[in-house]
Amino acid sequence: MSTDVRKPLPDVQDIDHAPFWQGTEKGKLHAKRCADCGRYQWPPRLGCPYCGSGKVDWVGVSRSGKVFSWTVIHRSQTPGFEAETPYAVVLVELNDAEGVRMVGNLVNCPLDLLKAGLPVEAVFTPSPDGTVTLVNWQPAENAAA
User: pLDDT, tens digit, for every residue of 77-134?
Assistant: First the structure.
């Protein structure tokens, strides 16, 4: 009997998020933007939460941003993550999409370098079963250590 526990993965067929996951397969990030007021929204919704318009479309957004906040997981409460502790989960404010903050794991970075405002870029990582391409974050190449 196997004791391997599979990590939970997002539902790539979910009607509200499918276009986002289709973009990550191609190494691109997308968010919804209102055609009437021009504001971005994340997480995606059917209509604009700012002006009430129903004219919202998926648009490409920057793969770079800055760490807004984070938490370091020392003891995983979710099966499948135990071997990776400690690890950081970051909230990243995108550079070109005001109001969009995306969550992901911080990779390729010692935890002692993590700080608010750290410039980061998206890293696209296929899930172990190949069903989805996940978005993680690493320090931007031009970021000062």
Answer: 888 888 889 999 999 999 999 999 999 999 999 999 999 999 999 999 999 889 999 9
Residue 1 lies in a domain: no
Does 93 reside within a domain?
A: yes
* DSSP three-state, residue 108: coil
Helices and strands, counts by H and E, the chain = 1, 8
Does the predicted TM-score (pTM) go above 0.70? yes
The span from the CA of 31 to the CA of 60, in Å, is 7
Query: Tens digits of per-residue pLDDT, 40-72?
Result: 999 998 899 999 999 999 999 999 999 999 999
Which of 27, 54, 19, 45 has the alpha carbon at shortest distance from 99? 45
Q: From CA 132, how far away is CA 67, in angstroms rounded?
A: 24
Task: Tell the residue number behind the tokens 């931007």, with chain if given.
Answer: 140
Domain extent for 54:
18-139
Q: What CA–CA distances, in Å, run from 77 to 9, 16, 85, 102, 126?
A: 16, 27, 11, 21, 23
Main-chain dihedrals φ then ψ at residue 61, nearest 5 degrees: -130, 170
* Domain membership flag for residue 6: no
